[in-house]
# Entry
Amino acid sequence: MPNVTIKSLQKQNNTLKDEIAALRKNFDSFQQFVKTSEVQGANNGGHSCSVDAETSTHLEFYGKSYDSLNKFQEEARRKLSLLWSRLDELATKVDEMSSTLDQLLRYSYQYNIKILGFPETDTNESASTTTDLCLKFFKATGVEISCYDIDIAHRVPKRNATPGPRPIVFKFTRRIIKEEVMNKRNDACKVTASSVGIPADCSFKDVRLFDHLTPQIQQLLVDAKKFQNRNGYKFCWAKNFVVYLRQAVDSRPILFKSRADLENFAEQQGLPLS
# Structure
């Protein structure tokens, strides 16, 4: 399934989540209204006093009205209960769909790497040119790679307006080749321009290779880094769609798979989130 389709489905799924949250709020408000009506009805009834015939007739009328109100309230509570059950079922299905879509997206992203700082000599660089340059670059780091190991490589827009080359997203056909490339990532800055076939004044000293993260994990990493800076943690990184945080070199890493994990950890430690 193409990434664009998965992302589109995720967007629709998130919209459904927002609608469910709004429905829960409306149901809760209506439930509170029914409870308030019950209290008011109870406060207006049950008084015992001596009455004449005309008053008795009026009381009988109001008594029937009160009985009708009670029946309405009972029916309202019953229907509310059914609606809550249906809403819970729907919310569960939406959560399951969200989890499935996330797994599909992760499966697609697991073959990708993101390359930052790779020299860009042509703003109109084609995907085939980008792929060819990356092939030469990987071979220069010592990885034996062929055209059959490649799906596609292309430049992607930068997240902000800072100067420098656009990032590259490179998709492999085999995960084992991706891992070999990532194992050589520390040698990326040692590659020379001549070995890749670009002008000699280009430099690879700022080239960095990363796992290509899904939008959800990318945002989790951003949030974790804010938490890291706010609370004095030394290391924060992501690998295999898990974000890690480490307070010091000799401390155990703490892992987060979702925003909820990070929030729970911050609450347990009594630390500000950002």
The helical segments are 3-43, 53-109, 127-140, 175-183, 193-196, 215-231, 259-269. Confidence is low (pLDDT under 50) at residues 46-51. The chain has three domains: 3-41+52-109, 112-211, 215-269.
